[in-house]
């Protein structure tokens, strides 16, 4: 497909052609791949602490500063995503006029003779009369393509059918979906949180420890662990982890439920996940005091009583970007359906009297999957040859 | 007979089929091609029976689940999917010469599953994280996608042999191979996308986040980006042929790393952990 056609209505300035260039897209994709590879090989976040201890502190500080230990949340990564988004938008915009032209392309039933680049025009000669052939072919085309346009010219009669015009827009749906997903992910990273909390059986808490900087976040409600249980298979592998949780607001029980792996509990937009467990810390109990506003002091008291009490480790997450990402995913699949399973197919048939015989020719054009179109044309040709076919 | 015994026999059947495809390529005699096809069909049927048997047995053990839950089962399913796709392609296009580039890959997967000491072939119960309805759709779409990429890889090797050495007059036309590589990559790309999406939904329920940069997630994204670049250079730039074949081979290397290499990095998906 030639894309070098002149693109109307777009000012040719340097910045624009840089951002709308396909080469930039490839370079950005390669850079993102390289960053992702580095992130998977170099220990990240918590795992990086051990590495940082083993290398000279100067180096560790530099790498830390360069955000090498948290590449997926680094300035580099966000910059790449930003440039990729810009590139996606400008590539799509700069190609849109051409797409629009193809979408609005008028039906020329008699364009047949002037289109040289049409793939393999096929022709057969029949004894059939022009009128009956026309009627039969129109029926055939209508069955496959819905509406049929017809035109009578001095050279003969032309029939024209098409389908899948909307397939031109599939690629924009996919690009939009990628932008939506990136947007949702960024929204989640900015306005959401991911935290962890340990609650011993019988205890309650309204604060959780944030991942990353380790800050403390206070919830608008209290969660109490009534009971934790773990169940094993005969071979010793775990079968089930279960925490019975109670959610309280202003001292009143608002919600109760069992938390299992793969079955999170959502409460007031905050989701709780079963993530770990253990026996309550070696006979000590940790208490939190609140003093003043938001300052939390933690003191640990030794406890004489050592029971086989469990604590449950809960992951606590809030992600306002989730519905955005989910709709992006749906858009992505929808775009895939259009791009990979539909194409804009246009078919021309000409019926021309040559002496006492009739020449039937068929030609086609498509925006993709030309092999598929060719197969369809061959099938139509055999149906045309077979005069017995119903109209 | 136990399913693992059948499956280790299937390994040799695929080896035999590979040899027959090779002999057909060298001698050009169609009889060998026919023999290769029916050997493959026989191996595939036996493998299907063994998979069903394994499924049934897991229920008899009281830990019923689809045979898609550990490394051994994934290798077996991978090989099964490769052969399934190959047979469909041979049936639809009449292409036989690709057999020698595909059947040995299925043989290697089966041999690794059956004879490597690192692979545990026992039926294991599902740990809590795997107890999910998303298991089947996630694993099936990922491995069908891997299988399509595997076939694209085999065809690409064949393509390069054809253009580099005029290797054999029995290899099909380059245009035909190019188109087939493209179709397999498209199919693999769609399935990989579905695999990543179903995996994200599952991770959302199991791990508390639809994306956590676990090495397997990261590498599946890397693989996805490589194939996305490949498809764009065809759609936008109209690139075909040799360049596409080379990209399909690079993409397959990423698939292999996503599947196997990632096990040596710490992460949630690690097969070696359990």
- Give the radius of gyration of chain B: 19 Å
Count of DSSP-assigned helices of chain B: 8
Distance between the termini of chain B: 27 Å
| Anisotropy-based shape of chain A | elongated
Helix/strand-derived category of chain B reads mainly alpha
The ordered H/E elements of chain B are HHHHHHHH
What structural class do you assign from the helix and strand content of chain A?
alpha+beta
**Average predicted local confidence, pLDDT of chain B:** 91
- Helical content class of chain B: over 70%
Number of strands of chain B: 0
String of helices and strands of chain A = HHHHHEHEEHEEEEEEEEEEHEEH
Question: The biggest beta sheet of chain B, please?
Answer: none
Record field, number of beta strands of chain A: 15
Beta content of chain A comes to: 25-35%
Helix segment tally of chain A: 9
The biggest beta sheet of chain A is recorded as: 8 strands, antiparallel
The protein's oligomeric status is heterodimer
Q: What labels describe this entry?
A:
heterodimer, A: 391 residues, alpha+beta, eight-stranded antiparallel sheet, five-stranded antiparallel sheet, 9 helices, disordered N terminus, B: 274 residues, mainly alpha, 8 helices, 73% helix, 0% strand, flat
Overview of the molecule:
The complex is a heterodimer of chains A (391) and B (274). By secondary structure, chain A is of the alpha+beta class. In chain A, 37% of the residues lie in helices and 34% in strands. Chain A is built from 9 helices and 15 strands. In chain A, the strands form 3 sheets. Chain A has an 8-stranded antiparallel sheet with strand order 8-7-6-5-4-13-10-9. In chain A, helix 3 packs antiparallel against helix 4 (57-65). The two termini of chain A are 35 Å apart. Chain B is mainly α and 274 residues long. Helices cover 73% and strands 0% of the residues of chain B. Chain B is built from 8 helices and no strands. Classes of the chains: A alpha+beta (391), B mainly alpha (274). At the A-B interface, helix 2, strand 7, strand 10 and helix 8 of A face helix 6 and helix 7 of B.
């Amino acid at each position: 497909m030639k894309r070098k056609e002149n693109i109307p209505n777009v000012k040719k300035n340097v910045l624009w052609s840089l951002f709308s260039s396909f080469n930039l897209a490839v370079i950005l994709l390669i850079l993102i791949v390289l960053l992702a590879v580095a992130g998977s090989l170099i220990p990240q976040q918590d795992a990086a602490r051990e590495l940082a201890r083993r290398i000279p502190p100067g180096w560790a500080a530099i790498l830390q500063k360069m955000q090498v230990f948290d590449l997926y949340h680094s300035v580099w990564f966000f910059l790449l995503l930003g440039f990729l988004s810009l590139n996606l938008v400008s590539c799509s915009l700069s190609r849109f006029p051409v797409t629009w032209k193809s979408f609005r392309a008028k039906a020329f039933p008699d364009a047949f003779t002037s289109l040289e680049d049409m793939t393999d025009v096929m022709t057969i000669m029949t004894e059939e009369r022009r009128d009956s052939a026309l009627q039969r072919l129109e029926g055939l085309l209508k069955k496959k393509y819905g509406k049929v346009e017809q035109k009578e010219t001095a050279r003969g009669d032309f029939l024209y059918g098409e389908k899948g015009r909307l397939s031109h827009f599939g690629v924009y749906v996919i690009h939009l979906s990628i932008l939506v997903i990136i947007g949702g992910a960024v929204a989640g990273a900015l306005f959401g949180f991911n935290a962890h909390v340990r609650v011993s059986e019988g205890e309650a808490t309204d604060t959780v420890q944030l991942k990353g900087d380790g800050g403390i976040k206070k919830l608008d409600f209290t969660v109490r662990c009534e009971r934790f249980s773990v169940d094993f298979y005969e071979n010793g592998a775990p079968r089930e982890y279960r925490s019975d949780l109670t959610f309280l607001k202003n001292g009143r029980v608002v919600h109760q439920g069992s938390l299992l792996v793969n079955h999170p509990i959502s409460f007031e937009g905050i989701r709780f996940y079963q993530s770990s467990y253990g026996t309550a810390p070696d006979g000590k109990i940790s208490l939190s005091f609140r003093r003043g506003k938001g300052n939390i002091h933690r003191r640990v008291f030794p406890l004489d009583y050592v029971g086989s009490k469990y604590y449950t480790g809960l992951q606590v997450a809030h992600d306002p970007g989730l519905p955005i990402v989910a709709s992006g995913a749906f858009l992505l699949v929808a775009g895939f359906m259009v791009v990979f399973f539909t194409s804009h197919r246009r078919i021309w048939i000409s019926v021309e009297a040559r002496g006492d015989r009739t020449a039937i020719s068929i030609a086609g054009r498509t925006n993709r999957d030309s092999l598929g179109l060719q197969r369809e044309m061959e099938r139509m040709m055999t149906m045309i040859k077979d005069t017995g076919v119903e109209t | 007979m136990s399913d693992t015994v059948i499956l280790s026999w299937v390994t040799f059947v695929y080896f035999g089929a590979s040899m027959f495809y090779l002999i057909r390529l060298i001698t050009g005699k169609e009889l060998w091609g026919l023999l290769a096809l029916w050997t493959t069909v026989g191996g595939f049927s036996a493998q299907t029976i063994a998979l069903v048997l394994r499924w049934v047995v897991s229920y008899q053990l009281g830990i019923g689940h689809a045979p898609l839950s550990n490394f051994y089962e994934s290798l077996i399913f991978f090989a099964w999917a490769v052969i399934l796709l190959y047979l469909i392609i041979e049936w639809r296009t009449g292409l036989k010469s690709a057999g020698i580039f595909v059947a040995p890959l299925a043989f290697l997967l089966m041999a690794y599953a059956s004879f490597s000491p690192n692979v545990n072939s026992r039926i294991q119960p599902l740990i809590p994280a795997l107890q999910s309805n998303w298991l089947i759709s996630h694993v099936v779409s990922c491995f069908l996608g891997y299988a399509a990429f595997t076939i694209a890889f085999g065809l690409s090797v064949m393509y390069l042999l054809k253009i580099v050495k005029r290797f054999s007059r029995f290899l099909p036309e380059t245009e035909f191979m190019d188109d087939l590589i493209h179709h397999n990559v498209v199919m693999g790309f769609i399935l990989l996308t579905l695999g990543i999406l179903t995996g994200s939904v599952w991770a959302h329920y199991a791990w508390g986040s639809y994306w956590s940069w676990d090495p397997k997630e990261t590498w599946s994204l890397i693989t996805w980006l490589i194939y996305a670049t490949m498809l764009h250079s065809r759609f936008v730039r109209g690139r075909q042929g040799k360049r596409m074949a080379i990209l399909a081979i690079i993409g397959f290397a990423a698939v292999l790393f996503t599947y196997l290499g990632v096990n040596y990095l710490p992460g949630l998906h690690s097969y070696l952990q359990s």
